[in-house]
# Entry
Amino acid sequence: MKKLTLLMFFFLSLSICAQKYYTKTGSTEFKASVQAFEPVEAKNNSTSAVLNAETGDIASLLFVKAFRFRVALMQEHFNENYMDSNKFPKATFKGKIEGFNASEISSSKEYTIKGTLTVRGVKKEIETIGKFTKQGKKLRLQASFSIKPEDFEIKIPKIVSKKIAGTINVNLDYELVEKK
Amino acid sequence: MSLSKKSKVILSIIVIIIIAVFAVYKYSMQPPAKIESKKVDFTGSSDELLSKIQQNAAEWQDKVVIISGKITGIDDKGFMLSSSIYCQLRDSLKVSSLTANQNISIKGRVIGYDDLLEELKLDQCIIQQQP
# Structure
């Protein structure tokens, strides 16, 4: 009987904990606008992310060329001059959500996310607060953080440096679904 | 009101300059080209595209393709083609018109090979035809 109970608990815990959540269409947007100048912002709606609910490990990947700007020329300059996206097509993040526990999230809960962001081959440690919200079967992750172009060796020519903010705000909005 | 010949010439030049400035502004502010007008770099089946990608993935970034295959999975923003290509629709509302296992042909842009989820990723996909 004890063995049966133990086995039952084992399987029960498996079904609660061993879950992976993912998205293929996460939204990552950044804003680097300076007031009174042309808005510098773009959105990437094809971010991939995988979250292991058991360990709290999270990894995400996006393709730089999938950032959509309102103005074609700005998108071209972004890819060719600043991001060199032919050479560095991806930006990735690998990190951990501290103390993540999916069952604790009744409606929404905030956790600290720490990890490494790699852009243009340059790695930087990032720490931010992620807000996790349960929406039916989906788990929504929203987070914001700031980075500087020089953190990733992105050189902004002096001529346009006044039009691009020194600090870039990045906003994430990922709707994660369970992996079956 | 009658103008001297000189004034007429100056006025015409000013008008031409205004039109030119307007045209340059309009050109420099135009949004990115729509997928319909983009030149196609590859037409074929999804399997053919996959074998080409396996040979040289980097070369296929940003290329526009028309591929056909079977829908193996549908989500709210796009669908899986042949279990290995994710096609994100430009218009996510069109998802409701799709059914699993149907054959479909789409025009889309190759974003790249997603090694996190191990699939090829396409976006701006528009449905070419539904047989």
